[in-house]
Amino acid sequence: MKRDFIKGTIVLVSLFVAFSCSKEQTTEESNLITANSSGEIIAVKSTGVTTFNVATITAPFDSTADLTTDEIEFLYAVRDDEKLARDIYAIIGKSESTHIKAIERLHDYYQIEYPPVGESGKFVNSQLQSLYDSLLVKGVSQLETVCAGYGTD
């Protein structure tokens, strides 16, 4: 029971974290992660909106019995791990924004016209767009591989 609880929690947290960021996907991509053959857990719409369908999820444990001390500690650890990721990503995002502003100051100094940075995930440079798209597909593919491993005992 504890093992199923831990596996289920890890899968749910991984799915939620991986698909909680806004991104555009095709209809085919929005159906990549499914609970089973009967229902979708997470859908990412082309608008970037992520939906989480709780009705299709089967609980990874058989009862509503009180959690053990180990299970509670595990939940604390998972939350702290997610906080760590959030805090690091926030630092990285702020740092990259600072870098963009620094480059824009150089453009201004040298009186070089430049377009706005634009929408997240969209690039004018076709090589950067291709790189972004391939990294996105690679990330989804790796997530599917990891999640597939949790479906076996």
Write a structural description.
By secondary structure, the chain is mainly alpha-helical. The chain is 58% helix and 7% strand. It has four helices and four strands; from the N terminus they run ααββββαα. It has helices at 2-19, 27-30, 69-109, 126-150, and strands at residues 34-36, 39-40, 42-44, 50-52. The strands form two sheets. The chain has a two-stranded antiparallel ribbon with strand order 1-2. A hairpin with a 5-residue loop joins strand 3 and strand 4 (50-52). Helix 1 (2-19) runs parallel beside helix 3 (69-109) and helix 1 (2-19) runs antiparallel to helix 4 (126-150). Mean pLDDT is 73; it is low at 15-38.
Task: Offer a few descriptive terms.
153 residues; mainly alpha
Summarize the model shown.
By secondary structure, the chain is mainly alpha-helical.
